[in-house]
Amino acid sequence: MILFKRSEDLAVWLAGQRQEDRSVGFVPTMGALHPGHISLIDMSKKTSLSTVCSIFVNPTQFNDPKDFQKYPITLENDILLLERAGTDVLFLPGAGDLYPTGISGLERYDLGYLETVLDGHYRPGHFQGVCQVMRRLLDRVRPRHLFMGRKDYQQCMVVKRLLTLMGSDTILHPCPTLREAGGLAMSSRNMRLSAEQREQAKAIFQTLLFLKENCRPGELGDLTQQAVSRLQERGFRIDYVEIADADTLEKVTRWDGNQPLVALIAAFLGEVRLIDNMSLTPEN
Ligand code: AMP
Q1: pLDDT in tens, 261-273
Q2: Catalytic: 37?
Q3: Catalytic residue among 37, 121, 126, 145
Q4: Is the pTM of this model over 0.85?
Q5: What would the mean pLDDT of 148-171 be, rounded to a whole number?
Q6: Which residues contact 76 (CB under 8 A, 6 or more apart)?
Q7: d(CA 150, CA 145)
Q8: Ligand 1 pocket member 185 (CB < 6 A)
Q9: Which of 27, 33, 37, 177 to mutate to test the pocket of ligand 1 (most atoms within 8 A of CB)?
C-alpha cells in the first residue's frame, strides 16, 4: 500500500492509473476503521482495478466540538487493516491541504429539504461539512466508483445530490451495514461506549426489527410512538425515530402498502450519538 500525505503526490499516481486505463474506486473515511469500513474496501476491489481509501477527520462536519475532540484516532491499526485488505493507496491529507484558506466562510451547497430533515435538522451544518470535504476529496481522487455505507443513509442521499450538483460521472455505490453479533451497527463511535452501554445499544437494532415486523398499511404514528417508548425505557435520549420514504426521506405518517419505506433512528447513550436505519420494504 502506498501512503500519500500530499494531494500533489496522489495526483501523479492517479495520472499513471489513468494512462493505464485502470478504474479507481474510492472509500472516504474518518479512520478508527472497523470491518464495516473494510467491507467497502472489499466492494471496491471487486468493482475497480485500484482502490484508494482516505482518512481525514473532517472538522467542518462536526456540529458538536466535543464530538470532534473525542473522535477516536487509531492510525497504526487502520494502516494494518487497510494493508491486509489489499488497499492500493491510503490518502492522508492534512487540513491545510484540503482547506488551504481555513474552514470559515466556505462555499454552501443547495441540498434542499434533505438538509432540513432528520440529521439535517438535528445536526445543523453537518451535511454542508460533508459536502465541503467530499467535494475536495472527489476533486482530488476523481474516482470512477465511490463506496459509502447505507448505515449513513441520509449521507448517501446528500452525496448523490452533491455528485449531481458537481456534474460528476462518479458512480455512487451505497453498501450494506455491517453489524456486531447482537445487531449493533459497527461504528467508530462504538469505541466510546462502555461494555454495559454496548449491551444497551443493541436495542436500536431490535427496535428497527420491531418496526419492520409490525409495519402495516395505514397510520404509522402509534407504531413509531411504541418504538420511541422502547428506546426511552432502555435509557436512550432520542433525536428521532422516523419512518420515511426510502427514495426521498420525506416522513410517512400513513402507508399505502406500496411506497418504499426506511426506518431511521438517532439516539444518545450518554454522550455518544448512535444512528442506524433499516429498509422496511424490499430494497430495489
Ligand atoms: P466514517 O469513517 O464513519 O465517516 O465512515 C466512512 C464510511 O464507512 C461511510 O461511507 C460510512 O457509511 C461507512 N460505514 C460506517 N460504518 C459502517 C458499517 N457498519 N457498515 C458499512 N459501512 C459503514
Answers
A1: 999 999 999 999 9
A2: yes
A3: 37
A4: yes
A5: 98
A6: none
A7: 15
A8: yes
A9: 37
Q: Exposed/middle/buried for 181, CB within 10 Å: 0-12, 13-18, 19+?
A: exposed
CA of 148 to the centre of ligand 1 (A): 7
Counting every residue written for the chain, the total comes to 284
Ligand 1 lined by 187 (C-beta under 6 Å): yes
3-state secondary structure string across 24-65: EEEEEECCCCCHHHHHHHHHHHHHCCEEEEEECCCHHHCCCH
pLDDT band, very low/low/confident/very high, at 186 (cuts 50, 70, 90)? very high
1-57 pLDDT per residue, tens: 999 999 999 999 999 999 999 999 999 999 999 999 999 999 999 999 999 999 999
C-alpha cell at 193: 461506549
Question: Is a pLDDT exceeding 70 seen at residue 284?
Answer: no
Ligand 1 centroid to residue 229 C-alpha, Å = 28
